[in-house]
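Data availability (excerpt). The following record was deposited with the supplementary files.
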Amino acid sequence: TKFRMVEITKGVHSIDHLGYPVPNVGFVSYIVKEKENDLTLIDTCFRSELPKLEDYIRNAGHELNQIRRIILTHVHPDHIQATNELRKEVADDVKIYAHWIEAAYLSKSPSYHGPPSHEQIKELFQKFGVKVEDLAKRFGPMTVDPIHIDEQIKDGDTIGSLRVIHTPGHTPGHISLYSEKHRIIFGADFLFKSVFGIEGLFVPRAIVSLDPVTAAISAERISKVNFDKLLLAHQDSPVLENGQKEVEKAAAEAIRNLKHQQ
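Predicted structure:
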């Protein structure tokens, strides 16, 4: 079968080519093996993509019930929509983690109204020649049911071997995860890489981010962490070396651009 997990380094896999509405953007979630039969999944995917995600995991020789924890990096539907369905299929005692700010939005109390709005989504799709009707056929509704978070986390917490770094800006409770052992940052959407027609690493724009200024400061903070590999949710390919330097450059450029806009 064409779905396979890519081993980034021993015990860390990327689940590539999960569907995303904009052409050539794609979505990546990640598996971290903590020990034998003990996996952490970082983000889920759209509901329509769940069979694909499950195929990847099985093709890598794992069972779904080996997923012991699911960490949701933030509230946007592409990262979380399949969570409730996956929870049912994995095991009753799988634990779902999210930052305490995001946990409130995930459980819909209150609902999240940050960007992108329906209008902004439409605008984005039009720009890339995507018809909303075609999307509905492939992805179904973009709505998300309330998700119960078992454990609310904060900056500096540790989940398995991963350290939580609060990286707000894209959303208020957005988190990145740091594996000191592997010198990896799992950055979710704190940066995008060579997608949406923009080359290289960049801080997601206001059309999808609540506060691009805070997002740029979050990127600058990550650039002070000691790491090599940068794994993002939307990327043409992972950054496998000099990740820290690359993030430093992207953060500096974002802050420069923001100063010019003032």
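Summary of structural features: The mean pLDDT is 93.
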